[in-house]
Amino acid sequence: MLHWPSQLPTVCRHLPWLPAHMRLHTRRLEACLHQAKHTAANLQVHSGSWGAAKLNVDVYRRVFHMFIASMTTYRPLLLRIKTAYDTALEDAAGSAYDHVHLQAELSLMPQRHAEAVAGARAEASARAAAMQDELQHKLQELKQEAAQAEAEFVQADEQLHYYQKHILQARTELDQLETANRRSYKELLDGSSWHLLAQPQGLSSNGPGSHVGKAYRTSS
Predict the structure, then answer these.
(1) CB 3.0 to 4.6 Å from 36: which of 59, 147, 159, 192, for a disulfide?
(2) 18 in Cβ contact with 12 (< 8 Å)
């Protein structure tokens, strides 16, 4: 059932010369248009969206088609007009769709950019963390090698001091042995007969071995 609001601006009020049956048909078309727009409004489609504009155009197209169907005399002309308008409307709707699609793509660009930046930062952080772990592991290995080298150096230095101490002790003992050998050899030589024979002539008769010299000279 059609609703007839009192505030509906009908065409009949501006065209009083129309016949009665035409004014009745016009009222019915306006009522159909109002009801279709009311139904579209009840769908709660946002007025600024592309879908709402398309639905609004479809409402007027449906009413215009009803108007053409009721006009038998001017129907061919109205059909050509409708075809021209439909072509223009389809092109406009396509452009509007492309515009809306482009706007949607542009609206997603900041989010995509933020996601790309976040992904790049996460990848860079992961690489930096992996590189840091690798460097830390390498540094730990170098520290262990340095500590081992230092321990080996300390051990070698201790062994060197040990050998130097024993060499010095051996040299001291060798010097002592050589001194004792020389002393013993001298004492042995001084106490032997060869030492007495090796003394030069003209020694004092009171010296040790003088009687041997006298006896030798007497026998000769």
Answers:
(1) 59
(2) yes
Cβ distance 28 to 9 under 8 Å? no
* Cα radius of gyration rounded to whole Å, the chain: 66
User: What's the one-letter identity of residue 142?
Assistant: L
State the CB neighbour count (10 A cutoff) for residue 151: 10
Average pLDDT for 155-177: 92
The domain ranges of the chain are 20-109
- Interval 87-117: pLDDT, tens: 777 777 677 677 777 778 888 888 888 898 9
Closest CA to 81 of 217, 165, 24, 89: 89
* Lookup: tokens for 201: 């002539």
Distance of CA 90 to the CA centre of its chain: 50
- Is residue 5 within 8 A of residue 33, CB to CB? The reply is no
Q: Is the dihedral of CA 203, 207, 213, 217 positive or negative?
A: positive
Residue 40 has pLDDT above 60, yes or no: yes
Q: Tell me the pLDDT tens digit for each residue of 58-91.
A: 777 777 777 777 666 666 767 777 787 777 777 7
* pTM confidence score: 0.33
List of residues 6+ apart from 137 with CB closer than 8 A: none
The pair of structure tokens assigned to 25 is 């048909």
Q: For residue 200, give the DSSP letter.
A: P
**Among candidates 58, 55, 66, which has minimal Cα distance to 2?**
66
DSSP string of 10-56? -STTT-TTS-HHHHHHHHHHHHHHHHHHHHHHHTT--TTSHHHHHHH
